[in-house]
Amino acid sequence: MSEKMQKKMGLTAKILIGMLTGIAIGGILRVLLPGNEVVETYLVDGLFSVIGNIFVSSLKMLVVPLVFVSLVCGTASLSDPGKLGRLGGKTLAFYLTTTAIAITLAITLAILVHPGNASMAAEGLAFDAKAAPPLSQVLVNIVPSNPIDAMAKGSMLQIIVFAIIFGVAISQSGERGARIRDFFEDINAVVMKLVTILMQLAPYGVFALMAKLALTLGLATFGSVVKYFFLVLGVLFLHGLVTYPTLLKAFTGLSPLTFLKKMRSVQLFAFSTASSNATLPVTIENANYRLGVHNNISSFSLPLGATINMDGTAIMQGVATVFIAQVFGMDLTLGDYVMVIITATLASIGTAGVPGVGLIMLAMVLNQVGLPVEGIALILGVDRLLDMVRTAVNVTGDAAVTVIVAKSEGEFEQEVYDDPYAGAQLMGDREPSKAG
After folding, report:
1. FRET label pair with 364: which of 18, 194, 311, 385, CA 20 to 30 Å apart?
2. What is the CATH number of domain 11-426?
3. pLDDT at 114
C-alpha cells in the first residue's frame, strides 16, 4: 500500500483492515498448520501475544490519569453544585433505564426463542464463582480510604468519587482554585495528545489480537450452545442498533445514522480489547471531537458509564438465566423474571471493580432465583467472543447517553455533530473541530 494511500485512509479503515487481516492469517494458519508447535510458541504465545498485550497495556496505561484529570477538569468547571447534582442524577437515570430495557428485551426474546434444551447433558459441570460483595460493602467501598491506593489498583468508582470531590473543592476555592483548574486543563491537553499518539498503534494491536483469537478459538466450542450464542448476539445488535438510536432520536432529534457512523472506530476498539475502561480514552476523544459533546459533560458521563453501564452484560445475564433454566428443566415464574431484571440492573452500579464481573454477577442472579450456578460452565466456551461484542454495545450506550445529557444541558455543538469531517484528524487526515 502506498504512503499516499495510507495517509488518506482513516483510522477506522486501518483498524478494520488490521482486524480482517488478523482473522484471515490466524484462520489460514489454523487450517494449514493445526497444532503446530512453532506456530503456538512463536506466534500465539510469542509475537501476537506480545504485540496484543502491549497495545492493550498502552490503552490501560491512560485510563487512570485520563479519568482522574478529565473528571477534575469537568467538575471544576461546574461552579454551580446544583448543576452537578442534576447532571449526575440525569446520567445515572439514563444508564439504569437502558440497562433495564436491555435485560427485559433479553429475557423476553429468550422465552420466545427457547434456546435451552433439557436433553443436554448437564452433569459434571463446574464453575468456581467468586462471591459477589454484599450491597453494604459496595456502598462503603465507593469512598476511597486512600485515593493513591485506589489509583494504583485501578478502582474506578473510588477514583471517580475522589475526582468529583476534588473538582468541587477546586470550583469553590476562588482564585487559587482557578490556578489549579488551569493546571489540570494543561495536563488534560497533554493526556489527550498522548491518546492521539498511541491510537496510531491500534491497527497493529488489533491485528495481533484478532490473529491470536482466530488461532485459539475453536469452532467446536460453539457446539450445543450455538443457539444461545446467536440469540445473545442478536439481542446485542438489536439493543445497539435500535434501542440507543430510538432514545437518541426521541430525546434529542439528532440523526441516529450520523451517531452510528461516528461511533465505528470506538466500537472497533471496544470489540478488539473487550474492555470499556481500555476503550475510554478513545470514547472521550470521539465524544469531544466527533460528536460535539463539551468536555465538562463527557469527562463526567463517560467514565461513569464505563464503570456502571453494563447493558451488554445485562443482556448476557438475561438470556443465560433463561437458557440455564431451560437446560435444567426448571420453570421460572413472572416474579422470578422481575427479580432477575431488578437484580441485574441494580448490580450494574457497584460491581465493575470485581474481576470477571459478568460471570460473577450472573452467578449472583442465578442464586437469586434458585438456579444451579454450575450451569455457567455451559456458556464459558463462547463467552470471550460475546464479551467483545457486548463491550462494543456498552461503549455505544455510554456515548448515546452522553450525547442525550449534553444536548439537554446545552453543552453540545450541533455543527460538530452534523459535520461528517469534524474531528477527522482523529480518524483520518483533516483538522478536528473542537467542542468545548
Report:
1. 385
2. 1.10.3860.10
3. 85
